[in-house]
Amino acid sequence: MTENAETTQADHHFPCDNCGGDMRFDPAGRQLTCDHCGNLEPMDAGPWRAAAIREMSYDQALSQQLPSMEMEETRVSKCPNCAAEVAFDPDIHATECPFCATPVVTDTGKHRHIKPRAVLPFALDEASARNAMTNWLGGLWFAPNGLKEYARKGRRMQGIYVPYWTFDADTKSAYSGERGTVYFETHTVMHNGKTQRVRVPKVRWRSKRGRVARFFDDVVVLASTSLPKTYTDGLEPWDLSGLEPYAPEYLAGFRAEGYAVPLKDGFVEARQIMDRVIARDIRFDIGGDRQRIHRVDTDVRDVTFKHILLPVWLAAYKYRGRTFRFVVNGTTGKVQGERPYSTVKITVAVIVGLLIAAAVGYGMALNQ
After folding, report:
1. What sign results for the dihedral spanned by CA atoms 81, 227, 117, 91?
2. Terminal C-alpha separation, the chain
3. In a 3-state reduction of DSSP, which class is residue 51?
4. Residues of the chain with pLDDT > 90: what percent?
5. Within a 10 A sphere around the Cβ of 228, how many other Cβ atoms?
6. Contact call for residues 273 and 222 (beta carbons, < 8 A)
7. pLDDT tens readout for residues 3-18
8. DSSP label at 12?
């Protein structure tokens, strides 16, 4: 199994049975629709509705023993600006990087990688995502007015399915630590020439050993590097109860990014997330007022994973030589992005603040 560098897969095309035009997935109606003739095709009619979202063996994937049907190959080109790799349909020779708006020309690079197992369909259309973004920008007082206007009237937003790994694991942890009980001692001290009695907190520690167990279900790890992790983390939480078995029809009219974080590296981050939860469980098990953890030995078994796609609306705007990127959760409308600052607005705010401070100081001086 060869895991790919980051790719953005080309749009999936589904011809309309009525006029031959391209169908697209409509988030509002959760159906395929043709913008040319208005033909509709319910997603419920597809055979994928009866499919189950199955987990895959992590050990089999590491030993390259996944069935060939779980793998796919894409043709890509690397963006010269942000290094994202953009995939193409055979008849497309040039496009624009959806992550930074830089022109990209195709080459013949190919990558083989694990297919998506599930997808969380878009629930918001582009108009709703744009409203969420412009409202978010409108709340940033120090953002340049020109960028707000440019974003409001700018190019279309890109609907992109961003890759994630999810991991399941059964864990059992043995630990040693200490349980602290807070008690108080009364001391006599001198303060301003007077004797005072004060209560001083102390902690009495005693050793504690034990075991905790937890089954982790769907630990979510970002598998993309095209966007700052702070942006994508800010879009959480994701409601994975809405996951559907992967079907390319959900991608009609959208793009789907290939994963850049290899499965093994993804599990390293998942273990860090698990370890933080296990440490919380241990502190609860130790009890008392304070806790110290000295050693933890965790046995991790039955690790499974899924490659899933989560919906993000993306805007990349070039304004005065800089690229500003904004992302919108495709189901909740939550917005994250760069917080641009207007030096003019900041200068005005500082001057106004100084004038107010001077006026307050002058008024206080007159009243003395």
Report:
1. negative
2. 81
3. coil
4. 37
5. 14
6. no
7. 444 444 445 667 787 8
8. B
Integer angstrom CA distances of residue 105 from 79, 88, 92, 95, 317: 8, 10, 9, 7, 20
Residue 268 has pLDDT above 60, yes or no: yes
Q: Cβ neighbours of residue 97 under 8 Å, at least 6 residues apart?
A: 8, 79, 81, 82, 84, 86, 103, 104, 316
- Please check whether residue 290 is in contact with residue 182, taking contact to mean a CB–CB distance below 8 angstroms: yes
Pull the structure tokens for residue 363.
């008024």
Alpha-carbon distance 270 to 275, whole Å? 9
Give the separation between CA 133 and CA 313, rounded to whole angstroms: 10
Q: Phi then psi for 258, rounded to 5 degrees?
A: -80, 155
SS3 label, residue 21: coil
Residue with tokens 């990087």: 97
Alpha-carbon distances, residue 285 vs 24, 94, 241, 255 (angstroms): 52, 58, 30, 46
Rounded Cα distance, 78 and 6, in Å: 8
pTM listed for this prediction = 0.78
For the chain, domain boundaries:
7-168+219-283+300-337, 340-368
Tokens found for residue 95: 């496009």
Phi-psi region of 136 (alpha: psi -120 to 50; beta: other; left: phi over 0): alpha
Give Rg (Cα) of the chain: 28
Mean pLDDT of 82-108: 61
CB-based contact 122:26 (threshold 8 Å): no
Instruction: Tell me the sheet residues that pair with 312.
Output: 160, 329
